[in-house]
Amino acid sequence: MFRAYAHFSVNHPLVHKFNLLVVLSIFFVSCYELLANESIIFSLGFVLVAFPMLVFAKASDYKQKYLSAQN
Questions:
Q1: What pLDDT score was predicted for residue 5?
Q2: Number of domains forming the structure of the chain
Q3: Could you read off the pLDDT of 22-64 as tens digits, one per residue?
Q4: Which superkingdom (predicted)?
Q5: Which contiguous run of DSSP H or E holds residue 14?
Q6: Range of the domain at 22
Q7: Residue 9: how many other CB atoms lie within 10 Å
Q8: Exposed, middle or buried: residue 26 (CB in 10 Å: 0-12, 13-18, 19+)?
């Protein structure tokens, strides 16, 4: 899956940037709401963001190792 997303991010950089923007927006909104409202329910945003960030990190690592010579 990481390899597939690495190829996807190389082939479709705008969609990848949009995905990053959405995930980071969810993270920042969750942080703000957690601090402002002090309700534990907003910590679910951290759980929601954890998996996509893992995928982005592993795909970035793969892209740097194996796809950088192709560009």
A1: 93
A2: 1
A3: 999 999 999 999 999 988 888 898 999 999 999 999 999 999 9
A4: Bacteria
A5: helix 13-37
A6: 1-64
A7: 20
A8: middle
